[in-house]
Amino acid sequence: MNWYFTFIEFVSFLFIGIMGRHLFYRSRFFLNVLQQSGYKANEYWKWIRAHWSTHVLMVEHAAFNLIILLGLWKLSDWLTDTAIVLIIVIFGLFWFGSLSRWIPEKEKKPLVMTPRATRLAVLSTVFIATIPLFGTMMSFQVGVHFPEIYILAFLWIIGDLLAPLLFVPALLILKPVEKYIQNGFVKQSKAKIKAHPGLKVIGITGSYGKTSTKFVIQHILKERLSVCFTPGSYNTPMGICKVINNDLQPVHHVLILEMGARYRGNIKELCDIAQPDIAVVTNVGVAHLETFGSQHIIARTKEEILTNMHPEGTAILNGDDTLVMNMQTPVGAKRITYGLGKAQFYATNIRYDSDGCQFEAHSPAGESETVKTRLLGAHNVQNILAAFAVGSIFGMRLKTMALAAESLEPVEHRLELKKRGNISIIDDAFNSNPVGAANAVATLSQFTGGKRIIITPGMVELGEIEEEENKKFGSAIARANLDKVYLVGQKRTKPIYAGLELGGFDMNKVSVVNSLFEANEDVKQILEPGDIILYENDLPDTYNE
């Protein structure tokens, strides 16, 4: 009978292989979710609750345990051990053999195994693997047969089920370790700045436009100065520390830091690392309203950059934003305003075409210059004016700055104008907000010559006003009278759909799809030379329906 027990053990190992493979990729998926949640337990847990029935406690888990229960109660009396093992393996392969749910065909934001992610993966593996490995060792110690095969299967299913939940205790256990490591990086950054006399620190904050403004300021200042700045959306304590510790050199005159916030006190924490000599506030909107609670709290949080800047520094403020203009600055600080309306640096005669934008810039000294730029949108005009205000602090002439603006490259995924053969693409895929989305649609509406198409999943992280703002967004699209609308996500885009209907839009021009990839495949069928597509927001994989 040795062949019989060998067969039973072989099939049991096959089941363990199926489940182990599934558990590995399932755990990797949830580690990516945790990473995209900023390693914050509350945000990760919120995602878990929202996807409880589709990704956590799935039908497969309940159904498989039902099979085990039936086996214990009924099947064991008239089925052989071989049959029981084969049934378990077949159902295991049927329910857990596919990895399509855990390995997306195309990941928009794949898992990055940073040192922190690696530490978390190692500790969580200890927790996650304990239950199934215990069942495996117990079963093979006594020989795999009834009832050990049931115990083996049950414990592997339980391990697979609990995997996403066990990341939370691992995260909490590692919290003091991460805090210790982060404190070391902060101390190193502070020491490096202190040892750099004459360095001017520019801090930029706002609900949106921080990254675009940062790149414009850097581009203008580099005409005269050596500039170090944070790349992309590096706007957290560790992102800032990484740039200071690795990139800041003695030759640099200016350090430009983007300062983001999701909670009260976040900007103060950044200012404690590098106190701004020049503080730029772009606006106060409703981005991240879900975590702040109210626009008033957002304003107070953004104001932290002013209350924590150098007492005799300079505040660069958006004169078009009432909440920004009402912010308090230190008594000895200087205030410079910019904007499209009443401000010290202001713009007139703004116009757009397929090559970009052109406007007249005016300075407090009475100068005026024509500015031509490839950047699109009224908010980019504001960003350029903010950069002119900063440049004036360093003695740069308006004419010099206007010439520099001509060579500005669009920031990736922020109203970025691209050409794909005879097709124009406006890539505004990064973290859409109500003002930015409306500006993007208004910009698209001014193009002529071909079909004007928008592909969007709408806006997120707007808390209680999310549905209403997406409805307004739909109405804005209707007013723009576009030629084709793709809404990505059946459930998520219902408010946009309602806004389109409310605005009297021709709903025959609207297609609702399940994913960005589906929209891209569909739009290929209707494209003609001269058409222009606006990609407004591209949500990370954690938002997939």
Question: What does it look like?
Answer:
It is a single chain. It contains 19 helices and 15 strands. α1 (about 1-35) runs parallel beside α5 (about 80-95), α4 packs antiparallel against α5 and α14 (about 380-395) crosses α15. β2 (about 225-230), α9 and β3 (about 255-260) form a beta-alpha-beta unit. The chain has about 550 residues and is an alpha/beta fold. The mean pLDDT is about 85. The two termini are about 50 Å apart. The chain folds into three domains: about 1-180, no CATH class; about 195-405, Mur-like, catalytic domain (UDP-N-acetylmuramoyl-L-alanine:D-glutamate ligase, 3-Layer(aba) Sandwich), CATH 3.40.1190; about 415-545, Mur ligase, C-terminal domain (Protein-Tyrosine Phosphatase, Chain A, Alpha-Beta Complex). It has helices at about 1-35, 40-50, 50-55, 60-75, 80-95, 115-140, 150-195, 210-220, 235-245, 265-275, 290, 295-305, 320-325, 380-395, 400-405, 435-445, 465-480, 495-500, 515-525, and strands at about 200-205, 225-230, 255-260, 280, 315-320, 335-340, 345-355, 355-360, 370-375, 415-420, 425-430, 450-455, 485-490, 510-515, 530-535. The longest helix has about 45 residues, at about 150-195. The radius of gyration is 28 Å and the shape is globular. The strands form two sheets. A nine-stranded mixed beta sheet has the order 2-3-1-4-5-6-7-8-9, with helices on both faces. The chain has a six-stranded mixed beta sheet with strand order 10-11-15-12-13-14.
Summarize the structure.
The protein has 545 residues and is α/β, with parallel strands linked by helices. It is built from 19 helices and 15 strands.
